[in-house]
Every structure is written in structure tokens, then in C-alpha cells.
Amino acid sequence: MSFYNFMLKLFSIFSKTFFKFEVIGVDNIPSEGNLIIAANHKSNLDPIFVASAVNKKRKMTAIAKEELFKNKILAKILNKVEIIPINRQNPGLGTIKRILKYIKNDYALVMFPEGTRSKTDDFNNAKAGLSLFATKAKAEIVPCTIYSSYKLFKPAKIYFGKPISLEEYYKQKLTSEDHERISGEVMDIIKQNYYKLEKGEI
Length: 202
Hints:
Elements: H1 3-18, E1 20-24, E2 35-39, H2 46-54, E3 60-65, H3 72-80, E4 83-86, H4 93-104, E5 108-111, H5 129-137, E6 140-148, E7 155-160, H6 176-199
Parallel strand pairs: 1-7, 2-5, 2-6, 3-4, 3-5
Antiparallel strand pairs: 6-7
């Protein structure tokens, strides 16, 4: 068993043991093609939940702030599961090219459009990166909504919505403001699904 598959199994056992873990809409994840999975972000548990929910449906990579890689032990683990370090304030061209290469090599890129955890009950505004990577890589976006209190043995629901295509923007010259707006539109769908989960409508 590869280290990647070992970690997936570990994440799945953790999620199902310590939470009432429920995955809805996993069939909305395409089995092939360029793909980004975009999720809301309120806890350090979110990457574990998303990885557990996607599981072996698609090989995954993700972006993590470069500060995490300063810890040598953690850096070794993150590198083994192919997590990409990024300077959130000023991502270099090399990092962007590396991310696009992963997407084009059939990895699903897991992203949190808000860029950082929301420390309130509300959501942060989406950053431009989601739209930028999706249009550059010609990738579909699957909106992923995480609904949880993050308390042990309480529900943790992961909902995958229908894939979103940004094909209409592929040939357009988009500004940073355009990318933020488009990312925000995806984030709005994630939020709408969050409130539906809250009301029991999904």
C-alpha cells in the first residue's frame, strides 16, 4: 500500500469513527478530466473530511500555506501526499505552473476559495485563485460544501454539487477583479448548499 493510500484509509477511519460522517453527491465528481474541488473552510479538519469523502474516486492534490512546510516532519508527510506549498500573498510563477501541471495530469486539485479559515459563523470572500486556476487549466469546478460543528461524534456532512464549467471565460482576458467575481459566484453556490444542509433540504 502506498503512503498516499495509507493516509486516505487513515483519514476515512478517523472521519467515520469520530463523527457522524455522511457524504452526499459523490457521483457528481467526474471520474476523469481536469478538475478542481472547491470547498468552504472553517477548520483544520476540512482537508481530512474532503479527502475522506473523495477517497479513491480521484487522485488528489491540494494547496497549503508554505508556513506549514517549516516543520520538517510535517513537510515530509505533506510532500509524500503531494501537497503543494504556496505563498498566499505572492504565489510564484513556478508554483502556479506546478499546480496547473498536476491538474492537467488528472489530479483533482482540492482548493478552499476563501484562502484561509473563516473564524466566524460567516464565510470569507473568495480569492481570485480558484477562477485563475480553473480557466488556465480548463478545469471543471465541483463545489463542495462542508457542514459540521466539528464536535466529536456530531454530524459532518460533505455535499458535492454539480460540476461548473467556466468554458465561456477560456478565451477572455480576465482581470484580478474578474477572477475574484467568478470565484465569488462559485462560493455563493457553496454557501447556498450550506444553508440547505442546515435546513435539512439536502
